[in-house]
Amino acid sequence: MLTRKLLRTAWSYKAQFISMIIMITLGMGMFLGFNMEWKTIEVDTGSFFEQTSYADYRLYSEKGFTSDDIKKISSIKGVRAATRYLSVNLDLKGEKNKSLALDVSENYKVSTFTVIDGAAYDESSDGFWLSDKFAEKNKLAIGDSLSLEFQGTEISVKIVGLIKAGEHMICVADKNQMMPDYSTFGYAYISPKKLKAVLRDKIQNDFKKELEKSRVPAEFIDENLTGLFVTDDMLSEVETKAFAQINILSDLSKKSLEKAVKKKLGRTIMVTSKDDHVVCKEANGEAEEGKTMGSVLPVLFLAIAILTMVTTMHRIATKEKTQIGTLKALGFKNRRILRHYTSYGLFIGVVGTALGVALGYAVCKAIMSEDGMMGTYFDMPDWGVAIPAFCYPVMAATIALLTLISYLSVRQQLKGTAADALRPYSPKKMRKIFLERFRFWDKMRFGTKWNIRDLSRHKSRSAMTLFGIVGCMVLMVGGLGMRDTMAGFLNLLDHDISNYTTKVNLVDDADMKKSKELYRELGGDWESLAGISLDGDTVTLDIVHNPSGLFNVIDEDNNRIELKNEGVYLCLRLSDRAKPGDEIKFSPYGSKKTYSAKVLGYNRSVMTESVTITDTLADKLGIEYSVSSIYTDKKIAEIKSNDLISGKQDKAQLMESFNSFVEIMDGMVIILVIAAAVLGIVVLYNLGIMSYVERSRELATLKVLGFRNRTIGRLLISQNIWLTFIGVAIGLPAGVGVLQWLITALAGEYEMRLMLGVLTYLVSVVLTFGVSLLVGLMVARKNKKIDMVEALKGAE
Amino acid sequence: MSIVKFENVTRIYKSGEHELKALDDVSFNLDEGKFVVILGPSGAGKSTLLNMLGGLDSPTEGTITVNGRDISTLSDNELADYRAATVGFVFQFYNLIPTLTVYENVELVSQIAPDALDAKQMIAEVGLSDHLHNFPSELSGGEQQRISIARALAKNPKILLCDEPTGALDSETGVRVLKLLLGMARNYGKTIVIVTHNQSIAKMADTVIRVKNGKIREIINQDRPLGVEEVEW
Lengths: 796, 233
Hints:
heterodimer, A: 19 strands, about 55% helix, elongated, B: alpha/beta, globular
């Protein structure tokens, strides 16, 4: 019988019940959605890494690794498997702006791939295993042939399989590209046998070119002749140079491995753990971002939902006071009544949480699925959904808390005798408020006084409304501000830092003389990037030659720094390491030398943590380096490929890939802003209705006295508008604070600075006021239907 | 001269398929400046009658003319203006605004009534000048009803409508409030309509309308109504 009563009571308070369920659903949905998102990234990418034996460590040597080196590395205790590895970006012949990362793993136990279609890996195959997404975007199929240009030699290979590889799960040409673009860049694997054949071709080709320059008659120059020059030693030497990387599976710590490698090879080798590799780093970064997002904004949703529940449940319990008294008078025991009313909270909790799980799943899927926002970012075969373990206790605790809220609200009404409970609820006595001490109080209109006193009389309701508005505002400023900050960051990258047309990337260890020749031909600026050890940490040494201003080093205010030759510049993220005027010591990887230089100032390095110096100073200090990239005004088509160039990037194209990243962010921002607006509407409507019901007697009195509906409606709306003013005044700085915190927390990868556009302020404020006004009007409309006769019956 | 004219007024309330005839073809006239008591048992239709007269409700059929104006066809806003200018209400449970002080509750009506009287003076007349800045919850029931009377009269209405004005008070306080109500209404020359089931109050009225089952049973004009002190309570 009481169950029937529960359902009917729920129906009679349907606005409150539905809004509470919506709030719990939203709160739980956002909380679960964002937390499931990062967990799913961790689990899905983790299992894909496992499946494709993604390397734990990578050793880099510009001189390359010999077959003897790999034997020594493999013999290190704690190294499960190791492979010489090659990954080089090559242009597709006959195609404009298309390139592939060509990978070779000598030992197919490390850095492997999953075949989606076609032939399984075969180390003696001559074929090509191509990224399935690249194939799809470029309409390539198994059996088609592709031609690549490898250091002046053409490689023509047939596609034998379509694959996904852990090493290229985020398929970007270099660390400057944020988003994969499979129409222009993909990856492919060939077998070590095929690589050997390619290298042999290259040597023969080089000889051919030499012979053509000599006096040897052209008719004598053929493969048989050039083949005579290729010796095993020569091939092994070229192969050593090609394998500039060793990939390792090992549980050893980085320090132990570094030590062991140094002991085995007798030289310092740059060791990077998988956390430093672009793919794993980006995936972890995404998960970390999700964690940060999941720990602030959705928690705010849940908190607002629970707090509003406290107020609403208390009001329902007081309204049910006489019913409670009746049940008590009929002889129902307190425990039974408690159980009955407590089940209201349980009901809301269970239904809200169940719907929240569904919403959370949908939010997570909208972000993390092949067709979702991350589908363009990650290239993985399996997209499951994972939920962090702590979410289960949070769900249970939320349901328990909601049940407890009902329990406590009802227990309060059950105190005393049945007769006490039967007496209708009497509201708190009115007391003078602080403002009444001042003279201006008497001059206020009655509506203003009425509203101010009502707010102070129903403090918890007012506080909840305020909390709802502040929350709505924080979510909007937070969401939209993230977008502004990102856009500002890209603008900085696009205009303040980069003014070039094309970035020409040179091969590792590019010959300095040839590089300078190429630079003279192309013009513009160049930079050299190399890993150095600064106080034991890996940072980038950025050697810059930028007289043309196509590539700028900028200061804190985004102005170009005219670099001086007397010292180094630390990026702002390293500013705690040394002050201007201090001396720092650093040593390049693979070198035993240590250099020291004076710090001249700080610069903004948006991508990596870096120490920047001019080429003049680098030369003066005697640092060995090679040019990494040339920034030029020339268009890609005007730049002829040669064996020095590893890739060419169009800036517009690069910025386009950033824009795709912004689109992902837009998706999340839209989810947040919509959720914020819905939350705002539900919280304000719920509390507005509560306020309306509580004041219905007063409103009816005003109506009876002769006040028009519109005047009374204005009274109701003005209270909402005041609270919105206060809420916006608190919510705006609070939103900026939360955003600042988020950006600082997310700043691991990129140096971003909080930026908020006028439009963000405007949209947040207008939307929040809009929500408040809309709800005010919805509530005020009810006033028209107020039954004066009914409302005036009975004593207060 | 008649200030109120009910002509064949019927009020039917519908609830699902059920119909309840709260007033059934009621017709009567009330003269200006008179003290009228509408008497009848619970559910007789007396409050419905008062609500119609007060512009809180409209008839299903028939016309109600107050001060020469048909109020049965007025819009919501016109009814609000009618209530503001023509009628003053005194309720059984006072219906003061709890968040406004005594003074503010009375002064409130000056915002809507075109000929409102001075709030402070009205409060002084009900003898509560010392409580100007108290909230209703700080007053006794009798005091709250006195404020309610002051508020009703401050509008300077033509008609004062009272629904069981002493119903929530003990008899001694009730008599005092009634005396004040009648005294003030007569001083200001108002027509008073009181709805009650208290037979004693009827003895003081110029006109007594007995209502039962939605119909008027009888209308008694008393030539010599009793004074408050003469009535046995």
